[in-house]
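U., I forgot to send this yesterday:
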Amino acid sequence: MSCTEGSLQETVKVEGNGRNTDSISSDINHTDTLSDDIGVLLGNRDFSDIILVVNGEKIPANKALLAARKVTFRGLLYGGLKESGEGEVVLNQTNVFAFRILLRYLYTAKISLAEYKDDQLLEILGIAHQYCVFKLQNAIADHFKRTLNCKNVCTVFSTAQSYCLTSLTESCLCFADQHANEVLLTQGFLQLSIAEVTQLVSRDSFVAPEINIFCAILNWVKAHPKMRSAAVEVLKKHLILSQISRRDLLKIVWPSKLLASDILLDVIDKQDEAELKLLRKLTEEDEKCPTTI
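Result:
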């Protein structure tokens, strides 16, 4: 095969009369190598024209490429900002690891999410959101939707809330609904904000024994003692105390001192009344239908 044939493939169909039935294809598409070729520029001082300083670490980069890839960098490197006329641009309070991954993505449009742990992916998600790289942000969000588990769901949920990722937030809530008891026992639950705890346990679809929810919030209060009063309000509003057994009320809830004793006594009184009504009903039914021997 000649050099011309190797670089330009032509497909021709010939009928018996010698006429071509298909038009000759003259399109060249070698974009499969473009990503790797451009990736060579990443971090190469010989080809760079700007230095990005991230937490004191200097990273060689290419202004035109970054500006072409994201409007965020276009304004930073070519806009009216002070940094645009300098050879170095200092980016403060930025995660170096995550920023390097972001740069790699901007240069190559490729990233293997399977190579990173959940906490690393959340860092990358955060910086993608910060620099408005929404394709990367959404790809990571979709990855988490597929890989949610009891250990990471609360952390992912909190992050999704922070970045207003509605679809990922809903996926986390649905997963938590299906694994409520397990989620309540995780370390991630203890790291949630009071607003996030409320959003989780207030859902009708979040089904777990009330005593389990109480114990989880009790543990949360131990991790966030300054938020005790806010947690008490959550318990008052969303916990169905009447569904907790008298034994658990006396052995677990009462000693915690999260809820006032008069509230618990009122619940116990109502439980007694309900039991008494049931007993009376059963007695009346027995009297109407006496057992014959």
